[in-house]
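WARN no homologs supplied; continuing
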Amino acid sequence: MQQQSKSRSTLHQTILGELEQKIVSGEWPPGHKLPFELDLAKTYNVSRMTVNKVMTQLVKAGLIERRKRSGSFVAQPKGQSAILEINDIESEVRALGQSYAFSILSKAMRPMHEIDTADWDVPGTARILVLTCLHQAGGVPFCLEERLINLDVVPEASSAAFETEPPGNWLIRQAPWSTAEHRIFAVNATDRLPALLQIPKGSACLIVERRTWSEVGPVTHVRLTYPGKQHAIVARFSPASKPA
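OK structure emitted
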């Protein structure tokens, strides 16, 4: 009896390990439909209960999701943004084990508008560069970036192509920030967001708005929009003083 129990446990670990490997390696990419439990049971010559336990573990690990009447699918990886840090999006994506790509959707120079000055303490006489950029993880939209760059502080941005390096990484090198401010909130996807992020209309989205300053003055105002289902915000902090 003990030997039989050990054998079942070994089979369970074998199946779990093989399915995890297919997902983590990218052989089964996000959205891939897994074989039905009955088919997996036949493939591994085990009971359906054993396969069900494996699938439950994969769900708890966040590797797959079950959809009623549809089956099980490889889950989209969930990113984590740190509130108190400025991490570039490429690093976020690669930390998830996904391939990274970005594209500039629009780029234009214009004067400051009243709507800009309401959110950003830049003189109304300043000229700014307006950029819209889409970041992808494993070929799937990961984040929409809408950025204003103060050309009075970073004039080099007007001639930057941003073909091989995303704007955030470029700015960190060109105009290191000394002060930053984050504003975080949620919205429902409307207008162009559903199409750009490939999510259903009305889906929850996580917004991270960031303003940075250098010693010279305001550098950039950026709005990062993440599909809420695929992202989480993380903050690590310590108490101001230890309790007596």
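The chain has two domains: 2-74, 79-234.
OK
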